[in-house]
Description:
Blueprint: E1 8-13, E2 17-18, E3 22-26, E4 32-33, E5 38-42, E6 62-69, E7 72-78, H1 80-89, H2 93-103, E8 110-113, E9 118-121, H3 137-140, E10 142-145, E11 159-160, E12 167-173, E13 196-202, H4 205-214, E14 217-230, H5 234-239, E15 246-253, E16 260-271, H6 273-276, E17 277-278, E18 281-282, E19 297-302, E20 305-306, H7 316-327, E21 370-371, E22 379-380, E23 391-399, E24 402-410, E25 424-439, E26 442-447
Antiparallel strand pairs: 1-13, 2-3, 3-12, 4-11, 4-13, 5-10, 5-13, 6-7, 6-12, 8-9, 14-25, 15-24, 16-23, 16-25, 17-18, 19-20, 19-24, 21-22, 25-26
Amino acid sequence: MAAYSGNIKTRYYDPVAQDSTSCEFRLDPDVGYYPNLRVLHLGLLRAGNDVYCAMPGAYGKIRNISLKSNGQVLDELRRANQFMAFLNSLKDNNAQKDQLAVEAKNRSALVIDSQLKALADRKTNPTKSVADGLLGRQTALAYLPLNLCFPLLNEMTHIDTSIFKNLSIRIEYDSRIPFQVEAGHNVAIEGHPEPVLAADQIMDKDVVAKLSRDFKGAVWSAVEHDSFIVDSQAAVADAGADTVEIVQNVQKKLIGYNDKYVSRIVVMKNGTSAQNNSNNVSIGYGEYASKAQFKESINFQLNGKNIFTGKGLDNDATKLMYLADTWGAGAMAPFDHLTCCGLEDQNTATLGARTIADGTIRTEGKRPVLPNPVDATNFSQNAKTGQYSFIGCALESRVRDLQVDYERTCLKDSQVNKPLSGQLTFNIYAEVRKQLQVMGDKFLVSYA
């Protein structure tokens, strides 16, 4: 509470520029702010009763975001929506239900439906989560604490714009509709409500001067992105017999982290648009799903040595354990990290002629069985099953050479979207150590 014990005033800033692709804020010169910057009224305008993508909520509209002084990057987050969706999932279920559903407008919390005895999505704003014209602004627009995007802010005592001159925050919007809303991907975004930047200004200039004299710099872990493609094996797998297993081995260099000190990393295995969407509707978590694969394993070669023995993380329990140990526990339903969980209720007879309507095709604690998202005439396991297969570990080392060794087994698959043999994009986010040095009214940002 010490940050609020002095003479402060909350300032609200409109963007100095905004269009359909981006917006930019600029802070006042020669003043001091506390680093708890936040963006208000973040959202979309679209006709109809739409909902944001479940994992990121309104944060799904942010493609890239940067904090700059005189054009020099202080901190930035690229492919921000995918990483923030992952961060949202790390909140415990109560926080997702009671906090993020209000702040971020996401809907990845879970509740137990006492009648169906299955896990179901919590929908805070089920009929209007995206602002329709001027209606629903207060319930549809989100709040973004900027320290989620700029970890540097967590290490700063204050922001003195006499040092960080022409301080600006630029948000680049994601033009891809499936990354923003769950349905109606063929309906254009009508516009972006004008967001507002809130900043707490320190009104006592003596306090600002003392803080600036004492602040010599900071060391923090910036988040940087790299990616590679795992090619589809669908044609090869489908050409064989039902029992044939096609083993795919991939080795890829991650040169984006060379000569940098890397702490934690997280790997997201994202499918193609055809895998993630059907009939202009997201399948499960859609573009934010990290897809579990059959008999997969992953290892990392760091500076010529394997991090893990053998094939590395080669079973689902181990991958989930390392993810939780590295990034912390999150909220997910049973089987969300596995390729499948089966359709049968263990306490009743076989499937037979039962329908979803009678509420019996489910096992306690699982997500409910739903119509197949690609073929609605058939039953299918819930689309979110197998979509929380993130891989996390800690390197805590300076990288000279980093290689990913990945293996999966592809099967003949009659599904149109080929979830177990299609192309995957590996999006990797890593914490990279950087340092800020302040020398009088000048500063230097470099890798530590």
